[in-house]
Design a protein that fits this description.
Peptidase; 3-stranded mixed sheet; 22% strand; 14 strands; alpha+beta; 7 helices; SapC
């Protein structure tokens, strides 16, 4: 029986959102003929094992993926979608997402995102990744006669929801940092071939500390709407077994190839 170890870090680039190669403001004139191919697949997400999420997604994520946090002044939550760095177990060889599993908002909204037009500005613009495989001459038009089409209007709505959720998540991160709720953990998984797979050095919530929190703080968290997300994070830590099963399937398929 062998044991393999991985260290899990959640480091996203502040200057460039996850999945984006380049950032370009969407322009009705410059991109008048641009189309979105909704069948392009999820190849852009195939090489990451961590995906940023918002607290609005916790109830969906917790059922299938462990939730861990980044280090730093404001810890941010990530869904674990693979056990190895650069390997997303949810995306298959055909670049399709695994059936009946939750697709995080950061994946759904790519290659679109709302970003401030300037540092510290409250005004935002729609930004695209012009290198995305889904953007080009195939698919549904983004503009008609200079006006956003229904699909672009829907995308803008989704990106608005995601941005609002991320703002709320930043406040959640500030709260757990101030309360010092994060602790480093490790998990050891038994794969179907009998080998062990260990992941160390990821940050997660300390259930014992939450359980021992003072009543006045607990009541404030309930008023602020933090209790449910906290418990959903703790619940998510029961989801490592699905990833272990998928890693076992990946290894078996590779051995038989």
């Amino acid at each position: 029986m062998t044991e393999e170890k991985q260290s899990s870090g959640s480091q996203a680039t502040a200057a460039r959102p996850m999945f984006f190669n380049r950032l370009m403001t969407l322009d009705r004139e410059l991109h008048a003929n641009m189309k979105l191919n909704t069948n392009a697949g999820f190849g852009f997400a195939a090489h990451t094992h961590l995906i940023p999420i918002t607290i609005a997604e916790f109830r969906f994520v917790a059922r299938q993926y462990p939730i861990i946090f980044s280090a730093g002044e404001i810890p941010m939550p990530f869904a674990v979608v693979g056990l190895r760095e650069n390997t997303n177990l949810m995306v298959n060889e055909s670049n399709q997402w695994r059936n009946r599993t939750y697709i995080p908002g950061a994946v759904h909204t790519y290659p679109f995102i709302l970003l401030p037009i300037a540092k510290d500005s409250n005004e935002v613009s729609v930004v695209i990744d012009p290198d995305a495989a889904s953007l080009g001459e195939i698919g549904e038009a983004l503009f008609k006669d200079g006006t956003p089409t229904p699909i672009l209007s829907r995308i803008i709505e989704l990106t608005n929801h995601f941005r609002a959720g991320m703002m709320k998540t930043i406040e959640f991160g500030k709260m757990i940092a101030a309360a010092e709720l994060l602790v480093p953990r490790g998990v050891e998984l038994l794969l179907q071939d009998g080998s062990k797979f260990r992941i160390d050095n990821f940050l997660t919530l300390d259930g014992a500390k939450i359980d021992g929190i003072a009543n006045n703080i607990f009541l404030r968290w309930r008023k602020d709407g933090w209790l449910l997300p906290l418990f959903q994070c703790l619940q998510s830590l029961d989801s490592w077994s699905m990833l272990a099963d998928l890693e076992s399937d990946r290894r078996a398929a590779a051995a038989n190839a």
